[in-house]
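task queued by scheduler; priority normal; single chain, no ligands, no partner chains; default sampling; output format set to structure tokens
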Amino acid sequence: MRFSPQFLEELKARLPVSEVVGRRVKLTRAGREFKGLSPFNKEKTPSFFVNDQKQAWFDFSSQTNGSIFDFVMRTDGVTFPEAVERLAQMAGMPLPVVSREDDAREKKRKTLYEVMELAAQYFQATLAGRDGAKARGYLADRELDAATQLKFRLGYATGERFALKEHLGKQGIPVEDMTETGLLIHGDDIPVPYDRFRDRVMFPITDIRGRIIAFGGRALDKETKAKYLNSPETTLFHKGHNLYNGAAARQAAHQGAQIVVVEGYVDVIAMVNAGFPGAVAPLGTALTEDQLALIWKMHAEPVLCFDGDGAGKRAAYRAVDLALPKLEPGKSLRFAMLPEGQDPDDLLRSGGREAVADVVAQAKPLADVAWLREVEAGGFDTPERRAALEARLDAVTRGIGHEAVRKYYRQDFEARLRGFFQTESFGGGAARGAFPRRMAAAEGWRRDAAGADPRGGRGLRGGDPRRGGAPGFGGQAFGGQNGYAAVSQQLAASPLMRGPRTAMPLREALILQTVLNHPWLLHDHLEELSSLAFRHNDAERLKGAIIDGFAQEASPDAEILRAGLIRRGFADMLERLAVAVTTPAVWGAEPAAAPADVLITWQQLVALHRQWHSLTRELKDAEAALADDATEANQAWLFDVKSRIAAADGTEALIEGFGASSGRPSRSF
């Protein structure tokens, strides 16, 4: 029985290699891979590895590798068709009915790929030739040099109506194939089909395997109504299922690159040239569910990059609604907002790679964007409006499909509401009707911040909350003449920054301890560790020494790494690190922790460390903005930063079932 490539690809997509292999081999996670004892040779040390991203297994004991089909054929001793049948049954997929028509259709698809390849070669040759001078000038203006043109296979379609049609005809390609691939425009009222793309710079679009399936064309004539024109839906191309630069980005993501979703072809190319190889773009539409699923297969937490204007915010909010029902533990989105009126290409030209890297690094988590959408209008000066906000946030959480993720979003929003309503309280006292079961703690927070009994009158200068104004700025209740001092004190007192300033911060120490006890993390997270900025000099120096040591000898053995550091004079620093980690609560950082717990611990520590940096930067920006211009928008911004500090203070690093793999279940660190 013949199976179409589409059927086999879908079967592989439905069955991760780890699931198939895991039925016969006991696997444990090792970074991005799984490892276990070889099913083909007797061994004591695991040399059998599974990589779901590559859809393959690797047996170093026998120097063999393969797909799920190869594994079933070898372990079950069956033929390829039998292996496919067993895997299809496992996946719950009905076997296709193969007919002569199906066989002919598959041969036809192969022919259509060849047609698209010939068209791409023609467009490339035209760009390089005499007719491509104008297009080359346009590309030069966009700083897309000859090397870039070759790398992305850019081309040019002349303004003639039949140029491509005649060229492909000379190659023996029938008009029907040109029509089926969308290269020609045809119809009942069009007696002679003609070229779809005319006087346009051409951008080939590939599928995830790198085969050309469509084109995007950028008009050179300013009078042309359609600035960008994509191929229509065809046998090969479904624009909602593919991404520009998807094939190259998938490979880059496997090597550790961040996936960054931008809007257009030129933005992608500019990002790749600037050192962001994981850049992709939708194909002339808003991000679709299928595209999001494809992106999540590449990266667990991609960054969506939007313009900072109203349209960009609306696009971000649409992406929030698209993602919420699909969220899973460890799978989310982050949102980077560009300066208003600039796309990534503009920002790269004006500020260089550092400007874009800073925007990407400061990308907000999905929870932040969902929260901002609900509170940005302001005006929560009555119990009814506050109740409406709470109801909207409840609706957001109810839309999350995964139970555990839904629970933690609810906790996160409740904590944000506590902090938000505290800052908008009436008369300096408790916000009536806002989470009454927690008001005793809330009043204590205000008493500490203001240095006075919160029930003792208004005590606030600034807007009247009953008229929709924002209280608490410039008044004694928030620190006298400096109306923002209490906010900074709150951040300094929060768990994110708690601890003696002369000692190494606990989180920095825990990050280093985790790596020292589990150097295998560095195989996949070396660049991530390198990107972390530590505020303590010892932590920064030890981080650099760890990276250098691993670069010299990339061993997963913790003792080898420590011995190398001691030889280089870091023995005292390692002792100070041990003193800095005074709590045994973070089991995942300990030597005996299971790899699954270690990885969760690492992800949480890094996320919280970056959150601390982001909060400190944003707090300073918000304070400065309000000092310069005391508008309601700037007041709302500072309120939002405060609410996120309160949320971090109350729900820091909760992990469902943390430590279970190590036999040490724990609720948090």
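post-processing summary
- The mean pLDDT is 80.
- Residues 5-91 form a domain with the DNA Primase; Chain A fold (CATH 3.90.580.10).
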